[in-house]
Amino acid sequence: MIVVGAGPTGLMLAAELRLGGAEVVVVERRAERSWESRGIGFTARAAEILQQRGLLERLENTEITRQGHFGGIPIDYGILEGSHFGVRGAPQYRIEEMLEERALELGASVRRGYEMTGLAATGDGVTVTVEGPDGRAEVAARYLVGCDGGHSTVRKLGGFGFPGSDATREMYLADVTGCDIRPRPIGELLPNGMVMAAPVEEDWFRIIVCENGNPPDKERRAGFGDVADAWQRLTGDSIHGGRARWVSSFTDATRQADAYRRGRVLLAGDAAHIHLPAGGQGLSIGVQDAVNLGWKLAATLRGHAPAGLLDTYHSERHPVGERVLRNTRAQGTLNLTGKPAEPLRTVMAELLALPAVARHLSGMVSGFDIRYEVGERRHPLAGGRMPDRELTLTDGGRERSASLLHTARGVLITADASGRTARRAAPWSDRVDVVRVTAFPAGPEEHGAATESVLVRPDGYIAWAAPGDSRLTEALERWFGPAAPSEEPRDAGHLASTR
């Protein structure tokens, strides 16, 4: 199994594949890890996923904030219980460092300085041409995943379409110090553009400068002088006396691969979709792609995946990516169009004052409203994410539901005192853990419905819930494959003793 690209998406996928028992090699053309901050945080759902893998606590000195925006218009994302705008203070290089350490701990191989230059399909896999310090080599693999960014070589050589819209504007991005900058954390709309400034680390600010009338130029290599000049033209303030740790640029180009899978080749992260960075959704959607794909691909490689499981990666994640592209384009219209957008911003601000609208947009940007098709929805939780709740185990212990997913296995949480539900899951004990609880704690997601048991997929989404659906066996077969010979279920006591 080969993953191309050692950014957050590729490294997260490598860790997920190893948790699922698959061998994986990550190839990365850069000889060493990038130390640019780029993304400085991620959304609430991405934070929840990292918590479910026990990784969130590895990122030190981060801040969780409820206060965010939609297109520069403030929203309190705490209007959704358990939600927030995201995690700040986590530069991308720290996220990559943490994810690479985790992938290596789990036994993944990360090969830097190797560039993929060729791809050929074979009957039962792919052959990848790789060039590196020791020359050119052809490597065979059963599957290949491109996590190699917006200019993905895997996407191009794999024959994927990448329709969408070209860039209409270019923005500068830099980490600066030594200059007097006041915070503008959600961006400030100015007569001829927009500027943003947020603290990254001590004495360092992340700034974004979008100047209207600055057309995209693929040949331009922006320097600090370009950024400082644009900042002064827009704000009237000079930052020329400071310095930049790094400078980059990005555009509002919006594109999405026409398919996330073609045979043995798959795409994830920016290789599958590019869009305007808004609300930390870029890195976040890539991590979510990886967690959706990882367990399905590992099950396929190990031979116990049910028919069609790998196809659900495209059917579930492509609509999510499409929606992110749509909301980031909308945010760009609100936040980057300048004064002509003021009437629209005024109307949107009035709408966002309505709790129903604020909840809708908070769910969209945070990723909390993602819901997959898992069959007939006879329970409000079915298809949605498993909220993190404190569970009281039948042996008297307590455990957070997020910690049950650290090993990336399926989990059946049941308050069925008869033990019937647990016994029905016993033939899947090699893939699904059973956790017996005294009661399932209620939350707003149930909309008043009672909950006795839930079957949670390795990616944290609920595949079945009772009462409301009696077809637990069908759900187990649909997501985890054929039953193995019956064994005693792994119960909460076993889980507590092994964690």
Automatic annotation (TrEMBL):
Residues 2-328 form the FAD-binding domain. SUPFAM superfamilies: FAD/NAD(P)-binding domain. The keyword Oxidoreductase applies. GO terms for molecular function: FAD binding; oxidoreductase activity, acting on paired donors, with incorporation or reduction of molecular oxygen, NAD(P)H as one donor, and incorporation of one atom of oxygen. Its cofactor is FAD. It comes from the Bacteria. Keywords: FAD, Flavoprotein, Monooxygenase, Oxidoreductase. PANTHER family: BINDING MONOOXYGENASE, PUTATIVE (JCVI)-RELATED (PTHR43004:SF19), TRK SYSTEM POTASSIUM UPTAKE PROTEIN (PTHR43004). This is Monooxygenase, FAD-binding.
